[in-house]
Amino acid sequence: MQGVDLQNFAHTRSVLGISSDSRIYPYLLLIPVFFGIFIAADDQTVVVTILPEIIRDFKFTTYELDRASWTITGYLLGYIAAMPLIGSISDILGHRNMYIFCIIVFLIGSALVALSQSFYLLVAARIFQAVGAGALIPISIAIVGDLFPNNNRAIPLGILGACAEAGAVIGPLWGGLIIKVLDWEWAFWINIPLGFVVILGVYFFIQDNIRRTAPIDFIGGGLLIIFLSTLTLALSRISNLDSIMFYLLIACLISLLLFSLRIGRFRNPLLPSEMFSSKVFNVVHLTHLVIGAALIISMVTLPLMANTLLNMTPLDGGLMLMRMTVAIPVGAVIGAIILKYYGHRIPIVIGLAFTSFSFYLMSNWGLDYPNYETILHLLMLGFGFGLVIAPISSAAIGAVRIELIGTAAATITAARIMGMTLGLATITAWGMSRYSELTYKINFSPMSHETFAESQNRIIEGITLSGLQLFQEFFLVASILCLIGMVFTIFMTERAQNNE
């Protein structure tokens, strides 16, 4: 797609009454970009509430329910696999062009999901849809980098993060509303008219960026896709430890080795080695990896705890999680304001201090949820996660040349998703082992002095307390992870940016 004629572009602005001298002018240009992010984030979580309808439509038996999780795992796989390649391509072909391309991929995927006549086709369509959705966030970060000089990026990056998190919060509620009045397929059909509005807005409002002149490293991109895909699939099977997992890990290691050789020998590799020569760039990636792991622990543990120990309905479990996620957009905007005046390190350290302390408080929860204290802990947790969004993204794209902004935005986003994948796999495997260890101590045989009812009550109490201890330990692990991320950040020095 070629750039819009500047005269027509100016005419469009004047018709809308937008003055290029206004301080809000670049923010107005970003409205369609932010809206696209909101739609994609909404679709990431909308499946949570429509999944029972999908299971019913495809007539799953009780023994096949684990297959349904592939609607989420598949989306995660597509979300991360192509992200670095598309981010790199966007630096070469243009951020605006690739944003529009990714929206089109997302819309085609949405239609394919709605039209799917088998579960396997639905999962394949979700993966295809996620390829487009996943790349939107790093490309949007790159567009912010194009429109704003480094010292003015904080607020738009905060708004971008707030839109993404708001979409994720609204998703389950939106899905629940749709299935009350329409079939679940409409959760995906409705993306198409909204997506066309986004395409028109981005085409007319966003100008092309400074491009990197280099051939596209498709071989390197393919190797990286194989590495990320096999790693994600292997981690999803970590509780099985079977031959399939072994072969996936072998393929993962081979593709990583070949990709590393490619970086060293190819003149224009997918991920230029100069990016990793920056201490700031490396530190924020490690920090984001840890944040992703801590975030997924909260997102998995809270609904699971609600639906098991606390005997709450799935809707109540979703509302429990929402008490955390609703504070993330607020934290994202405030984190951006702190970033603007105090640099990257301070809001990241404050945010991780909030999350670590909140997780620690949650590790002392009992069975008396909800109360004012527990609700406050969840709000504090979400606020802390929000504080780090803008400074993490700003530090990553500010540490590279302007021609590599799209690539840097993709890698920093992929770091969080990979952290979520690692965190989910680890707590799944360790959690099963730890729960078996805790319940092993329970005497399931009736004692001589007990009646049957007393024996049942004692066993139920033992199982309940074992589950509570496990969830408390999950929160404590997340608290320690946030402390580790905070240590990384403390040693991160503020430095002059490379793309003023």
- The count of helical stretches stands at 21
The portion of residues assigned to helices is: over 70%
Query: Averaged pLDDT, please?
Result: 80
Proper CATH architecture of the largest domain: Up-down Bundle
SS content category: mainly alpha
Distance between the termini: 27 Å
Q: What is the CATH homology-level superfamily of the largest domain?
A: MFS general substrate transporter like domains
**Number of separate structural domains:** 2
Radius of gyration, CA atoms, in whole angstroms: 23 Å
Weakly predicted, low-confidence segments: 1-12
**Topology order in helix (H) and strand (E) letters:** HHHHHHHHHHHHHHHHHHHHH
The biggest beta sheet reads: none
Question: Which range does the strand content fall in?
Answer: under 5%
In short:
By secondary structure, this protein is an all-alpha fold. The chain has helices spanning about 5-15, 25-30, 30-45, 45-55, 70-80, 85-95, 95-115, 120-145, 155-180, 185-190, 190-205, 220-235, 245-265, 280-305, 315-325, 330-340, 345-360, 370-385, 390-400, 405-440, 450-490. It folds into two domains: about 1-215, Growth Hormone, Chain: A; about 275-500, Growth Hormone, Chain: A.
